[in-house]
Amino acid sequence: MNIEGLDYNTQRERLVLPEYGREIQKMVDHATQLPTKEERQRCAETIISIMERMYPQGHETPDYEQKLWDHLMIMSNFRLDIDFPYDVSDALKMARKPEPLPYPMSQIPVRHYGKLVFELFEQLKNMPAGPDRDELMRQTANQMKRDLLLWSHGSNTEEKIADDLARYTDGVIQLDLDTFKFERINEKELLALKNGNGKRRK
């Protein structure tokens, strides 16, 4: 809805450096359009003095004035033709957005167990039979039970855990439910921790 006399930020041109506000941006735009270099120079120096007053605490930081002139160049979209008191060639680097960091997306068959549990499956597949593998199997099976309880993906029965252990270790791990004992898990406390309602124990 457009109402005459009202000017919404969403309808305005996006600010290059929002921290300086729209009025400073208007001053910079005005400076770039002045006909002579002398006029542009005086206008730019006035703008810098206003920017300094806006952030007086910045005087304590190194290269403070250099950064102000860099910012002025960036706000002018590199169109301001004046004699800069500093080398503002680095302003172009400041204006560039950093490349987005790649987000690790590991392909795992089911997300509720998570990447770390699938890494445990790989370890179990390659470990020789013995006490160390038995202990890792015990820890993995109990973690799987917690994950199933937390995320409520299908049944959380012990039979499902045994089946999944066999499937994801290519049949190497066969959990004997007649002899294997799962840890007792307080489901209410586990769900409370998931929801951020758990109390820390002293």
How would you characterize this protein structure?
The protein has 202 residues and is mainly alpha-helical. The protein is built from 8 helices and no strands. The two termini are 57 Å apart. Mean pLDDT is 82; it is low at 198-202.
Brief synopsis:
The protein is an all-alpha fold. The protein is built from 8 helices and no strands. Helix 2 packs across helix 3.
Low-pLDDT parts are 198-202
Q: H/E series, N to C?
A: HHHHHHHH
Q: What's the tally of helices?
A: 8
Distance between the termini: 57 Å
Helix content: 40-55%
What is the overall pLDDT average? 82
- Decide which structural class fits the backbone: mainly alpha
Give the total of beta strands.
Answer: 0
SS strand fraction = under 5%
Radius of gyration: 31 Å
Q: Which shape, going by the Cα principal axes?
A: rod-shaped
Largest sheet: none
Based on the model shown, name its key terms.
202 residues; mainly alpha; rod-shaped
How are the SSEs ordered, and which strands pair?
Elements: H1 21-33, H2 37-54, H3 64-75, H4 91-95, H5 114-126, H6 131-151, H7 158-168, H8 187-194
Helix pairs in contact: 1-2, 2-3, 5-6
